[in-house]
Amino acid sequence: xxxxxxxxxxxxxxxxxxxxxxxxxxxxxxxxxxxxxxxxxxxxxxxxxxxxxxxxxxxxxxxxxxxxxxxxxxxxxxxxxxxxxxxxxxxxxxxxxxxxxxxxxxxxxxxxxxxxxxxxxxxxxxxxxxxxxxxxxxxxxxxxxxxxxxxxxxxxxxxxxxxxxxxxxxxxx
Length: 173
Prior knowledge:
Layout: H1 2-20, E1 26-32, E2 38-44, E3 49-55, E4 60-66, H2 72-75, H3 77-80, E5 88-97, E6 100-107, E7 111-118, E8 126-134, H4 140-146, E9 150-154, E10 157-161, H5 169-172
Antiparallel strand pairs: 1-2, 2-8, 3-4, 4-6, 5-6, 7-8, 9-10
């Protein structure tokens, strides 16, 4: 009887041990939106293991983070997504199941994500970096061509003026 109880206790401990290890705490969550791509960085003392997949109609990115706490910096990520971000509409953070924290990014359009880990360097710890690129890359030349010319009114007549950089006096000599 005593042997059976001991075996049951050992078996219970073996089941409990994987969940007993300390969850990874996110120390910082940063977002940098830009026209070319948006970068999101999660910083922690340990490397973060993850799984990334996308869902269509509506477009979403899903990142499952293994053994990561849903702590303050991670929850604050929700408020760091700005309305003028060209690719991310919003983000949700929640415990998906034991040991898995899920980030769901609602997107404004189709994207090409890149997700990777960076090792500690200088003052930065381990970082999980998500770069969100547009499915169709931004073309700066097309953006210039699509700009509306500026109209200036001179006296009683209207004149179309294409704005060109002015040559400085020092360059004319």
